[in-house]
Amino acid sequence: MSARCAALVTSALLAGAAPGILPSAGLAHGGRSHQSEDSAPHRAADEPALSSFTSRATARDAATALAAVAAPAQDVGSWGPVTAWPVVGVHVALLPNGKVLAHDSVGDKAAESYAVHDHTRATVWDPVTGTQTPVDVHTGFNVFCSGLAHLTNGSLFLAGGNKDYALNGIVQTHTFNPATNTWSLGPNMAVGRWYPSVTPLRNGEMLITEGGPDTPEIRTNTGTLRALSAAALNLPLYPWLDVAPDGRTFYSGPDQTMRSLDTAGSGAWQAYGQRDTLNRSYGSRALYDVGKILVSGGAASAADARVIDINGATPTTSATAPMAYRRRQHNLTVLADGTVLATGGNSSGASLVDLANGVYPAEQWNPATGQWKTLAPMQVTRQYHSTALLLPDGRVLSAGGGICGTCDTVGYLAKNAEVFTPPYLYKKDGSGALATRPSIASAPTAVGYGAGFDVSTPEAAAIRKLALVRLGAVTHSVNMEQRYVPLTFTAGTGTLRATSPVNANVAPPGMYMLFAIDANGVPSQARMVTLRQAPTVGLTSPAAGASYTAPATVSLVATAKDADGTVRKVEFFRGTTKLAEDLTAPYTYTWSAVPAGSYSLTARATDDLGATTTSAARGITVRANTPPATSITSPLNGAVFPRKADITIAARATDADGTVRKVEFFRANGATKLGEDLTAPYSYRWYSALSGTHQLRVRATDNGGAVTTSAAVGITVRY
Ligand SMILES: [Cu+2]
User: Fold this and answer.
1) Under 8 Å between Cβ of 295 and 309
2) Ligand 1 mean position to 476 CA, how many Å?
């Protein structure tokens, strides 16, 4: 298990402002002293005091930073107002509807301060209207310090959380459904996790790593969990993991050794060389292009940044310019144009928070030049438990900070957020006005891999770049899934013909923002697009070209699989007419009483994201059935027998297009059955025949079930 519990590290550095304003429970945390703090009851009235203390203690630094980066918004961007939030943005995730899910803990103070952890404060923030909708977790658990990432359908999957004041992890998994704003519990993990990472995989599965237990677990596409029992490995908390172009999951930090994890079967790790010499604890990373990762900062507030290229057989690293500011506890965020934004952090190397050494200016890294550019400064210092998230309008949410022992000690609480408008959204004419954005008039809501698709935009001729950006899910300086995927395209009139990512290694299945960027570098509003693999389906029965005799019974059997999800149903068709559907494997249907004809049979599979695939057709022939011919050969019509005679009735029966299955013998003109014979020669011996006159008949049945009744033969048995 990893070196644990950074939240317990105390590195209190009081800012210059009056310490008398500090809230009451500002005791330093150390070792096992939580109980003593628990005895000091938490007062809700402290909360605004904590927030306002933070603002006042840092106001002068923020103002100094603002004065130092005085340039027009077209060059350095701008920050919106600081708005109070109902929760601290410790964990934030973009939802498919463009809103943001945020959650923190049971209260504003360090988790060690609360004896009971039976719920979580959570909110859905609408960046368009600014409204907050409470969506607290009431499953009985605190998902503070969980890992979180998007399922392929856009729901959030959370692993672990905070069990108690001793900061033990929980075994629970949760899912947040953004369509209903509801939480549900998933299966329990083998061991509790606190500070785990969740990584969406190429096949729609979710990888859960660390947070205590060293054995990774996988959430399968049916929602169950399995352990990667051969891949136990001690990694730092909140490890940095991303699916690489080779399909494995690449580990880029925060410690130095680079690794790849094959998540198939019971799992297997491969270790490579060192990324660099820094243990980038509370640094940050961003996958800003296919197989390319930027890492920056961390350790003792390093300025150093590196690029890792994981496109080849072994990863290669290269230096890139250092940030202008040393940072730890900052966030890296890929922007709509593929540049990377660094926000927040501290410059002193303080483990969690240092109010006197917050880094206020944002910086933007350009992958084309490898250079950072200093941008406008934020207004609230955002350090431990702060987050940043790219929004569908190309702006960046910057939220949170606080909720830790050291935070309480130094008076740090940032229960608020501010939104950064990057330079690319401003006109370049010095007017300070927002640029006219290109627009995406329409785009498909879902596309497969390596497929062409059309994006309609009135500005088609001006579009220079088209890209998918995966919805972010961020906590503790770790965006668990951000990924920038440029798309190739050709411009037509009002339309861009784009090609989707070649495979799920380049862009794991799930939801992405589609941005179009024009010649001025201005991004459109994003459209949400789901990448998904269609299911595969085939008919295994009937055999191709099989022939039947009418009325036929045809057994249809299909196999169906979905590489990045689950099969929801298989439908069976004759031509365009649906025969039936089966929701569960094995997928079967028995088609009965099929009349003569030629039929083209197909099966159509639908997966959990609504993608469908129709199988290759199988042709069958059902031939009309010629009925058998039959007649009584003996006795002859008009024959007369003595009383109680034993009479042998013999019949001939043939079938031109098959075989005779049976011949039945009757008297009373077919009303009374005497007996039957299954094999030729067909006969029946009628012992002690009844006195009187009889009309004898036989009835032949063939292999297709067709029946022919013979002409009657009249006989007399004397009294
Ligand atoms: Cu935490």
Assistant:
1) no
2) 7
The mean pLDDT of the chain is 92
Task: Name the percent of the chain in helix, strand, coil, to the closest 5.
Answer: 10, 45, 50
Question: What is the 222 CA–ligand 1 centroid distance (Å)?
Answer: 29
DSSP 706: -
Go through the domains of the chain in sequence order and give each one's CATH number.
6-425 (2.130.10.80), 446-469+479-531 (2.60.40.10), 536-623 (2.60.40.10), 629-717 (2.60.40.10)
Q: Calculate how far, in angstroms, residue 362's C-alpha sits from the geometric centre of ligand 1.
A: 23
Q: Which residues surround ligand 1, an ion (CB under 5 A)?
A: 145
472, 341 contact by CB (below 8 A): no
One-letter identity of residue 118: D
Nearest to 84 by CA among 107, 51, 114, 116: 51
In the reported structure, the alpha carbon of residue 472 is separated from the centroid of ligand 1 by a whole-number distance in angstroms of 18
Burial per residue of 351-380, b for 16 or more beta-carbon CB atoms within 10 angstroms, e otherwise = bbbbbbbbbbbbbbbebeeeebbbbbbbbb
- With beta carbons less than 8 A apart as the criterion, state whether 108 and 408 touch: no
CA of 227 to the centre of ligand 1 (A): 25
SS3 35: helix
Q: How far apart are CA 288 and CA 342, in angstroms?
A: 13
CA distances from 604 to 447, 449, 546, 562, 612 (A): 18, 19, 20, 13, 7
Query: Among 610, 389, 614, which Cα is nearest to 509's?
Result: 610
Distance between CA atoms of residues 99 and 711, nearest Å: 83
Question: What's the pLDDT band for 22 if we cut at 50, 70, 90?
Answer: very low
DSSP 435: P
How many whole angstroms from 59 Cα to the centroid of ligand 1?
A: 25
Report CA(328)–ligand 1 centroid distance (Å).
15
Summarised one tens digit per residue, pLDDT across range 356-405 is 999 999 999 999 999 999 999 999 999 999 999 999 999 999 999 999 99
Determine the Cα–Cα distance for residues 172 and 170; give it in Å rounded to an integer. Answer: 6
What would the two tokens of residue 57 be?
């203690």
Rounded to the nearest angstrom, the gap between the alpha carbon of residue 23 and the centroid of all alpha carbons in its chain is 42
CA distance 656 to 648: 26
d(CA 111, CA 363): 32
Separation between Cα atoms, residue 496 and residue 480, nearest integer Å: 30
d(CA 602, CA 393): 44
Lookup: tokens for 207: 């990888």
pLDDT digits (tens, 9 = 90+) for 45-73: 566 667 778 888 888 888 888 888 889 99
With contact defined as beta carbons under 8 Å apart, do 384 and 330 qualify? no
Distances (CA, A) of 421 to 520, 523, 524, 596, 603: 16, 12, 14, 70, 50
Neighbours of 59 (CB within 10 A): 14
Concatenate the DSSP letters of all residues of 619-673 into one string: EEEEE--PPPEEEEEESPTT-EE-TT--EEEEEEEE-TTS-EEEEEEEEGGGTEE
Backbone angles phi, psi at 379, to 5 degrees: -100, -20
Contact 553, 592 (CB under 8 A): yes
- Amino acid letter for position 127: P
What are the structure tokens assigned to 356, written together? 């006197």
Q: How far is the CA of 414 from the centre of ligand 1 (A)?
A: 14
Q: What is the pLDDT of residues 290-307, one digit of tens each?
A: 999 999 999 999 999 999
Distance CA 241, CA 4 (A): 19
Cα 599–chain centre separation: 39
Please give the distance, rounded to the nearest whole angstrom, from the Cα atom of residue 707 to the centre of ligand 1.
81
Report d(CA 23, CA 28) in Å as an integer: 13
